[in-house]
């Protein structure tokens, strides 16, 4: 059985309204990587972004809530102190809402930030997701450099390429944003495409889970 690890970035409201019902219908797991962006951005787009109440609902439905930093910076460009503040602020905010963070992280924007890995290990994260495409060999790859493939738009070929990396026990990790994503249209996924692709995974007997669950399965 091939495994797909589903991840959804940036706490987009449509993930709760449009993604969750599809995942529930098929019994799929997923990780939602949460960030808050800047105060200014958040003030302008509050209706676009999930807050603590929505995130609690996601967690109650059985989904993983992961850390994607507070303001979505380029971590390579920040000092150790700044990166610590970015990671810890998000953790504290989730905790303040009664949300238990899954021990997984996603680098904002995607690129691997080697300078942040001592911090991430120190904070107890078991894996950090990049956008370096390929199969995720959980046992042998650098846990702070997990590969994943972003999908956007309505191109079937992109989706099938992304899931083709699933290889025996090694999952393919896929990144979605909003379904749809009206504020970040360059990472938009049309809802009808999302439903079609999830139906394909269901009909073809893929196991579809979150990142922390995939790590746990390897340990078991
Ligand atoms: Zn992001």
């Amino acid at each position: 059985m091939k495994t797909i690890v589903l991840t959804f970035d940036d706490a987009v409201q449509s993930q709760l309204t449009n993604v969750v019902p599809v995942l529930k219908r098929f019994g799929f797991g997923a990780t939602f990587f949460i960030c808050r962006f800047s105060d200014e951005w958040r003030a302008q787009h509050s209706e676009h972004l999930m807050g603590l109440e929505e995130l609690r609902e996601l967690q109650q439905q059985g989904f993983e809530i992961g850390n994607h930093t507070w303001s979505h910076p380029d971590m390579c460009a920040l000092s150790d102190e700044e990166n610590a503040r970015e990671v810890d602020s998000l953790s504290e905010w989730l905790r303040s809402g009664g949300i238990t963070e899954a021990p997984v992280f996603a680098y904002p924007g995607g690129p691997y930030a080697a300078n942040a890995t001592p911090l991430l290990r120190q904070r107890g994260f078991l894996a950090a997701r990049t956008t370096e495409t390929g199969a995720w060999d959980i046992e042998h790859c650098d846990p702070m450099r997990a590969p994943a493939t972003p999908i956007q738009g309505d191109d079937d070929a992109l989706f099938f390429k992304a899931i083709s990396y699933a290889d025996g026990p090694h999952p393919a990790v896929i990144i979605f944003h909003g379904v749809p994503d009206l504020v970040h249209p360059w990472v938009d996924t049309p809802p009808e495409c999302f439903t079609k692709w999830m139906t394909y995974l269901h009909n073809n007997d893929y196991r579809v889970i979150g990142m922390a669950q995939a790590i746990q399965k390897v340990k078991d």
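Residues 9-10, 68, 72, 108 surround zinc ion (CB under 6 Å). The chain is about 35% helix and 15% strand.
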